[in-house]
Specification:
By secondary structure, the chain is of the alpha/beta class. It is about 55% helix and about 10% strand. The chain is built from nine helices and five strands; from the N terminus they run αβαβααβααβααβα. The N terminus is likely disordered.
Length: about 220
C-alpha cells in the first residue's frame, strides 16, 4: 500500500457514496509509546486552530470489535496466533471505516487516525505473516492520503512503557516491528519523523508535513 492523492471524494466514489465536499484521511503510525497518540491529538488541535474541521480516531476502534481486541487480545499474558490478530484487526478496520472514517470524509472533514493498516503490516508482518496476505485481507481499507511514522528506537519506547506493557510491548517484538516500519518508510508508504526529540519539535514537524500536503493537495 502506498500514499497518493486517494482522498475524500475518491474514497467515496469507490464505495458508491455521495460526497458533499472533499475530505482528507491522515494516519499516524509508530511503536507503542512512540508518542503517536500525543502527536495525533496535537495535530487535530493544531488543524482546528487553523480553521480546519478535523477529528481524531484510533485503532483498535471504539466499536464492539475494537473493544473485544483491547480486552481479549492485547491484554493477554500470551499472544494469540498472529493470523487471528491480523483477521481481527482487518474486521475491526472495515467496521471503523464504514462507521467512523467514511461518514466523516463525506462531510468534508480531516480524519486523523492513530494507527491504521500499516500497524497490521508492521506488527503481524514482524510476527512472520506474508505482507501480501495482510494486504489482501485489508483490501477494503481505504488508502490514506498521507501516512506519517513517528520513529523512536525500540529501547526508548520500552523504557517509556515501564510496567504498563501489553502482549506486544516487549523489546524483541518492538525491534522487529520497527524494522518492518522502516521497510514501509523505504518503499515510500510512510513519511518518517524523528520522534526521539522534544515533543514540541516533533509536533511542529508533523504539522508542517500535513500543512504542506494540504496546500499541495488543494492545487489539484
Amino acid at each position: 500500500m502506498s500514499n497518493g492523492n486517494a482522498v475524500g471524494n475518491i474514497f467515496c466514489e469507490k464505495a458508491g457514496c455521495p460526497v458533499k465536499k472533499r475530505g482528507m484521511f491522515i494516519c499516524i503510525e509508530g511503536l507503542d509509546a512512540s508518542g503517536k497518540t500525543t502527536h495525533a491529538h496535537r495535530l487535530v488541535r493544531n488543524l482546528q486552530k487553523r480553521g480546519f474541521e478535523a477529528i481524531y480516531t484510533t485503532e483498535p476502534s471504539a466499536g464492539e470489535i475494537g473493544k473485544f481486541i483491547r480486552k481479549y487480545v492485547l491484554q493477554r499474558r500470551k499472544r494469540v496466533p498472529s493470523v487471528v490478530e491480523a483477521l481481527l484487526f482487518a474486521v475491526d478496520r472495515v467496521d471503523h471505516v464504514e462507521k467512523k472514517i467514511k461518514p466523516a470524509l463525506q462531510e468534508g472533514k480531516i480524519v486523523v487516525s492513530d494507527r491504521y493498516v500499516y500497524s497490521s503490516l508492521a506488527y503481524q508482518g514482524a510476527a512472520g505473516l506474508e505482507t501480501k496476505w495482510i494486504e489482501e485481507i485489508n483490501e477494503l481499507a481505504l488508502p490514506p492520503g498521507l501516512a506519517i511514522y513517528i520513529d523512536v528506537p525500540a529501547e526508548v519506547v520500552v523504557r517509556r512503557l515501564r510496567r504498563r506493557r501489553s502482549v506486544m510491548e516487549r523489546l524483541e517484538i518492538q525491534r522487529k516491528v520497527r524494522e518492518a516500519y522502516m521497510r514501509l518508510v523505504k518503499n515510500g508508504s510512510l513519511i518518517p519523523v524523528d520522534g526521539n526529540r522534544p515533543r514540541d519539535e516533533v509536533s511542529k514537524d508533523v504539522l508542517t508535513i500535513v500543512l504542506d500536503f494540504l496546500k499541495s493537495w488543494g492545487k489539484h
